[in-house]
Amino acid sequence: MSSLGPPAPAEDAAHADITSFAAAFEAWLLSRPAGVVGASFPQPTTGARMETMRRLMSDLFAEGWGRWGWPEAFGGLGGTILHRAVMWEGLARHGVGGMAAFEHLEVLGPTLLAMGPPEFCAQAFPGFLDGTETWAQGFSEPDAGSDLAALRTRATLDGDVYRISGRKIWTSWARFARWSLVLARTDTVESRHRGVTAFIVDLRSPGVEIRSIAQANGHDELAEVTFDDVVVPGDRLIGSLNGGWAVAMHILSSERGTFAWFRQCFLLQHLQRMLQWGTPEADGLLGDAVLDLASVGALSIDALRVHEHGATLGPRAAFTKLVLCAAEQGLFNWALASDADVIIDPVDERGLDLRAAYLFSRIVTVYGGSQQMQLDTVAKQILQLPA
Amino acid sequence: MTLVEDPDSLFLRSAQNALRSTDGDEALRALGWRDLLGSLEEDPDARLGVLAYFQAQGRELGSSGALGELMAHPYAGLFGEDRAVTATVGRRSARRGNRAIVVGTPGSNGILIDRPGHGISLVSLDTLELRPIGFSDGLALHEIESDLTDLPISLGEAQAVALRERSVQLGRLAIAYEILGAAETALAGAVQHARDRTQFGQPIGHFQAVRHLLASARVDAAAIEALAHLSAGQYPALPPMRDAILKALAGRNGRRICERSLQVLGAMGFTAEHEHHRSHSRVLVLDALLGTSSSLAHHIAVTLRESAGVVPDLNLSVAALRAN
């Protein structure tokens, strides 16, 4: 592509090249599209955040940008995860504050397309890309948190359908989702991780009940989801029967590995916005936070490259996850140390947004596998210490 | 397909083998390190090899003049010299101001002495008064005691500025790799100890408190490694402050790795007999060169804050994705 003249439209095949894509997308962002501008203002409620992001995703899909990085068979235009990395980096740099439920595109999306039923995904996935039908991920249960293999939600084969009953909790964005991946037991509880299967459940099905959980940071994207004899067609499996653990591990490689790239894009924007309030007394905390942010960047670029080549990180994803937690907490430690208004008197919408982000940073060492479980993974699988 | 651990590069292993059987300067010859140095800019593989040597030197606690030669590389050919030229490595003493350090065993070679604000002087090393300094880590270090204020200037400040930046970038990259290597050796010793040492009827590596100390140390090493590799791939087009960020990260994380390893080793790790103190000292010594982790992190913070809300490209961005 020539560097002269107007940028090529989003669907230009030349954008298979990441440099071409990045240049054209940046030109589009500089035209200040309404969807991007709209998503760059803090939103007062979780629902408003979600609606703003739906509009943005719809625009990105219609223009074509949001289709890059996904296979053509599933509504995409081809390319690799680097296209998505570039797109979200640009959106964050131009003020978009977060991904809302579309973070699940990066957490669940790669696994859905690699291991889900192709025909179903070909029909359903474009709705995720264009913002109309988002997905949730039902892993944790009231009695199965860190010990995920103790999960008790059960799926029973009944003719050519499964019937699912049980309870999931901490399911992000479930209230807004049409579909959910649900890890359910298809063998005895004693079979632990070997007797688990990943299902695709239509959250509009009879028997599904979703209750929002009001969080300590004022948001309520988390939910408790109960399944009471919910019918799921027999072919709505991701991976194989009793093969759900491999699906979960594939997802966690994204959630703990590549996802760090997307999250750090938004952390850098927080850093940029907060710098004007930084005080000399807090410089030590700022320096440390920058070192950790740079580490997350480097580790997550490695993760992106591994995924780009069709592999997954395996236990090394724990490195990325742990350093992301340190960076996020370090960044907000600095913000609070610089100006206690963050907590006691946020003043305006932007301040309220910052307070919610500060408070959320206190819990990042819990979600997606607690810090202690990540350290266990490193000790066992990488250092190979005796169990 | 799953990648569990990045295997060490062939060059890294060769360099470790060489350092086990001979001294550092002989190892550099055997490895053809100076040939690699010659194609540092244009050949990423050569660059990775040049830098992997430092990781090996850290792991094996070797000593050589490689750091000074690497830092002299940006000035190569400027003075029509036909003999080996090295550079001094700067550090700042709170009591005595800027100091010039010769790393490795001093010979009769020419040495570049950088005095920011004045320029660069090329002098013969045997004309200078040297005082051995350093610590128990096996790295030969000398501080130049001679008064440098009246040294003839070989390269004026105006020309020196851009080359100095390259020189310091390379020096900080190399030191980060060497800190990584030394910290890896400290951690490996502690991991082995956790497998071997029995208390309460079990190997202490069975206890979660110990496991988490070692795992945290391993995460710190992974962070240095990732940022060092990314930076080595991007050189010479490093984003602003990257060399300072990398060196500060290596110093901070390197010290933490050694401290956690020492905690696992217990009192035995604090003896002169145990080898832990050698890698720990190497990390501490290297942290003192070209800016300590504390001073660099402070500099980074102040620079960012004074940029008035415009974050310089930390290069966690598209350019980084495109590199390699």
Description:
The complex is a heterodimer of chains A (387) and B (324). Chain A has helices spanning 18-30, 34-38, 46-63, 81-93, 103-107, 109-115, 118-129, 244-274, 283-308, 317-338, 341-344, 349-361, 371-382, and strands at residues 134-138, 154-158, 161-169, 177-185, 196-202, 208-212, 223-233, 237-238. With 387 residues, chain A is of the alpha+beta class. Chain A has three domains: 13-132, Acyl-CoA dehydrogenase/oxidase, N-terminal domain (Butyryl-Coa Dehydrogenase, subunit A, domain 1, Orthogonal Bundle); 135-242, Beta Barrel (Butyryl-CoA Dehydrogenase, subunit A, domain 2); 245-382, Up-down Bundle (Butyryl-CoA Dehydrogenase, subunit A, domain 3), CATH 1.20.140. In chain A, the strands form two sheets. A four-stranded mixed β-sheet of chain A has the order 1-4-5-8. A four-stranded antiparallel β-sheet of chain A has the order 2-3-7-6, with no helix packed on it. The mean pLDDT of chain A is 94. Chain B folds into three domains: 10-69, no CATH class; 71-156, no CATH class; 160-322, Butyryl-CoA Dehydrogenase, subunit A, domain 3 (Up-down Bundle), CATH 1.20.140. In chain B, strand 2 and strand 3 form a beta hairpin. In chain B, helix 1 packs across helix 4 (44-60) and helix 6 runs antiparallel to helix 9. Chain B is globular. The relative contact order of chain B is 0.11. Chains A and B meet through helix 1, helix 4, helix 8, helix 9 and helix 10 of A and helix 6, helix 7, helix 8, helix 10 and helix 11 of B.
List its traits.
heterodimer; A: 387 residues; alpha+beta; Butyryl-Coa Dehydrogenase, subunit A, domain 1; Butyryl-CoA Dehydrogenase, subunit A, domain 2; Butyryl-CoA Dehydrogenase, subunit A, domain 3; 3 domains; four-stranded mixed beta sheet; four-stranded antiparallel beta sheet; 8 strands; 47% helix; B: 324 residues; 10 strands; 53% helix; 13% strand; globular; disordered N terminus
